[in-house]
Amino acid sequence: MQKDSVNICIAGEAGQGLDTVGQMLARALVRSGQHILVTQNYMSRIRGGHNFFSIRTGHTEEVGPADRVDLLAALNRESVDLHLPNLSQRGLVLYNAELGLDYKKSALAVPIKEMVRETILQNTVVLGCLAALLGLDPETVQNLIQDTLGKKHPELLQKNLDALTKGYEWTRQQNPDFTGLTQSTGAPDKMTVNGNQAIALGAMAAGVNFCSFYPMTPATSVALTLAANSRDLGIVVEQAEDEIAAINMAIGASFCGARSLVPTSGGGFALMGEGVSLSGMTETPVLIVLAQRPGPATGLPTRTEQGDLFLTLYSGHGDFPRAVFAPGDPEECFYLTYKGLDLAERFQSPVFVLTDQFLADSYRAVQPFDLSRLPEMKTADSSPGDPDKYQRYEITESGLSGRVLPGTGRHLVVADSDEHTPDGHITEDLDVRKRMVDKRLAKGKGLYEYIRPPEINGDKEPEILLLGWGSTKGAILEAASILADQGRKVASMHFSQVWPLDSEQFMDRLKAAGKVICIEGNATGQFAQLLRQQTGFSVSENILRYDGLPLSASYILQRI
37 by DSSP, 3-state: which? Predict the structure, then answer.
C-alpha cells in the first residue's frame, strides 16, 4: 500500500494559512483521480506554535496515515528542523528563500517575494509549486481556485491565478529531482469529506432537524456543517449557553417530535451525564456524537485519543439500554450516524457515535454515499389505538411502548423524570419500580438484532490477529497487509460498534488466532478490558498510543 503513495507535509505556524493550502491541494488531488488521506496536527492557539497538514496520496486507496515525509513544504525555519528526521530517501524540502537556510540537499528555495508582493498570495505560490512537483494538471488547480474564489472574492481571483502560475512555472524550470505521482486511471468522481462532515451528512440523510451544542474542539464542525445547510433542509441549530443546556434542549425537542443530535467532546460530555440519564428514564431518543480528545480536564484539546469509551458506556446514573458506534472512516461515519438516529427512534433511548480528532479532521476521497442502502427511518406512532386507554410507558414484552407526540391528537402524553407508572405519573410503588426497570432493560435485548458485526479480514487461523475499534481501522489494515506481504499468517478485526457486543459474531476467530494484539489510542486498553469483561477473553498483548498523535502502520509494526 505504501509503494505508490506520496506523503506531503505542509508545516508552519498557526495563522500562516497552511490549512488553506492543504485543503486546496487535497481537493485538487481528488479532482485528478487520486486517493487522499489527510492528517491535521494543530496546536490550541490562534497564532504561533507548530502546525502541520499531511496529505498521503496515490492512485490506490490510502487507508492509514504515514510517518515518513516525501515532500515537505516548510513555511518557517522550525518546520524544517522538526520534520527533517522523518524525510524519506526520495524526500524533497520546499521552503521560502527568505528563510536563508543552508540546507542544500534535496531542497528548493522558492523566491516567493520576487514572485508576489502581497503576503496573502504567498500560499498560492506554494500551491503552484506543489502542484508542479506532483505532476498535477495546472488547469485542474486553476478551476479549483475559480470555484473557490469566483463568487466569494472575485477581486482576488486573477491575482491568485497569476500567483499559482508563477509558482508552477518556476518549479518546472528547476528540473527538481523528485518523482511525482503516477497518473490515475480512475475517474475523478469522488467527494472530499472529513469525518465530521460525513457525520453531518448522515444526520441530514436521516432527517435530523434539531441540533443543540456548545462549541468544543473537535466536535464543533458537525454543528457548523448542519448550520450551513439549515435553511435548505429546515434544521434548527442552537448554540446553547453550556453543555447541560445543550443536552436538555435536544431531549425537549425530541419529546416534541424533532430528530435531535448533540455533538460534543469529553469535557463537555462529562457535564451531560444527568441529561443522558433523563433520556433513559423518559425513553426519549437522542443521538450524541462524542469526538474524543486527550484528557483528563482540558488535556490536549487539539490532539487525538480514544480515551472516552468507558465514559460513554457508563455515563448517566441508573440502568438503561444504549448503543455505541465507533466508525473507522468517513463512509462509516455517514452510515452509522444514520443508523444511530434510526435506533434512537426505534428503541426510544440515547445512542452514541464515538469519533476522535484524527477521524473528525481527516479528509478522504470517498464515493458519493449510496442513499439506496439506507433503510426507512422509524418514526413516532400516529395511531396507537384508543386515546382513552393510551399509556406512554405501557409495559410490553419487548419493552417498547407506543410513542405519541404530545399535541398531535386526543392521546394524553404524560412523562416524568421520576419513576412513574405506565401512564406516566410519579410513583413510589416499589413493585411498579421493578417492573419499569425490567421494561426499560428489555429494550436492550431488541438492540441485539441490529448489532453491526466486526469487519474481519485475512487468514482464518492466523499467527497474529490485529484487533481494534474506531479510527484505528486504516492503520491496522495497512499493518496487516504489510505483514501478509512478508509471508506472515495474519488477520485483522475491527469493531465499528462497541456496545452491545455479541460474542457469537467473533469469538471463534479470536480463539483460532495464535496471538491477539489489541491496538488502541489510549493508555489503559479500554476496549481490551471491555472485551474481557463481556466474554472472558484476554488479548495476548496491547499496543497503545496516547501521545496525542494517531496510530500508523509503522508505529504498530515497530512494536510488533
Answer: strand
C-alpha of 77 from chain center:
32
| Grid cell of 509 as nine digits | 476467530
For residue 187, is it within any domain?
no
**Residue carrying the nine cell digits 440502568:** 319
Strand order in the sheet with 515-520: 455-458, 490-495, 464-469, 515-520, 541-544
Question: Do 226 and 145 share a structural domain?
Answer: no
Share of the chain above pLDDT 70, in %: 97
Q: Is the pLDDT of residue 187 over 90?
A: no
Tell me the pLDDT tens digit for each residue of 276-320.
999 999 999 999 999 999 999 999 999 999 999 999 999 999 999
Q: Position of cell 448503543?
A: 323
> Does 181 fall in a domain?
no
391/421 Cα distance (integer angstroms): 9
How many distinct structural domains can be found in the chain? 4
pTM of the model as a whole: 0.94
d(Cα 280, Cα 194) in Å, to the nearest integer? 31
402-450: pLDDT as tens digits: 999 998 888 899 999 999 999 999 999 999 999 999 999 999 999 999 9
Residue 152 makes CB contacts below 8 A (sequence gap 6+) with none
Q: Which grid coordinates are listed for 123?
A: 500560499
First to last CA, the chain: 19
- The CATH number for 76's domain is 3.40.920.10
* Domain end position, chosen among 339, 373, 407: 373
Domain that residue 396 falls in: 387-449
Residue at grid coordinates 445512542: 351
Q: Are residues 427 and 508 in the same domain?
A: no
Helix (H) or strand (E) holding 57, with range, is strand 48-58
